Structures are given as C-alpha cells and as structure tokens.
Amino acid sequence: MTKMLKLVYFMILFVFIFFLVRVVNSDFLYPCLEDFKHLCQRNCPDDMIGVCSNLHCHCMKVNVN
User: Fold this and answer.
1) DSSP H or E stretch at residue 51
2) What pLDDT is stored for residue 23 in this prediction?
3) Domain map of the chain by residue range?
4) Domain Late nodulin, which positions (predicted)?
C-alpha cells in the first residue's frame, strides 16, 4: 500500500511540474485567464506583444514604422 501511495504522490508531483513548465515557457500555449494575463506579456520577447485569444496566450509581432 505504501508503494502505491508513493507512486500516486510522484504522479501528482510530475503533473504539477509539467503544468508549471507549460505556464513559464512561452513556447507553449497556456490558459490566458485573468490571473495569467501579466504572464502573457512577460513571456513574450521585447519586440512582440502578448495577446489573449480563445483563452490562450499568443505572442504577436509589432509593426513599428
């Protein structure tokens, strides 16, 4: 029973770390909810803006003339 419990804890930890990596890494789409809107802009390069579309964050190029 304790081995099974350790396995369950390990799986929960793995899922949590996987979600955390997705949120921090701007290469992946992640939910663009109210709490995460500041992350959308912060994870984009300086010459791009973070835009929330369909509840996902996208980095878009800005045309500066």
Assistant:
1) strand 48-53
2) 57
3) 2-61
4) 1-58
pLDDT, one tens digit per residue, over 1-21 is 688 899 999 999 888 877 766
Spatial separation of the C-alpha atoms in residues 3 and 1, rounded to whole Å: 5
Burial status of residue 57 (CB atoms within 10 A of its CB: 0-12, 13-18, 19 or more): buried
Backbone dihedral angles phi then psi of residue 62, each to the nearest 5 degrees = -105, 130
Q: How far apart are CA 62 and CA 13, in angstroms?
A: 38
In this prediction, residue 30 carries a pLDDT of 55
Q: How much is the pTM?
A: 0.39
The encoded tokens of residue 40 equal 């959308």
Question: How big is the chain by its Cα radius of gyration, in Å?
Answer: 17
CA 47, 41, 58, 14 dihedral sign is positive
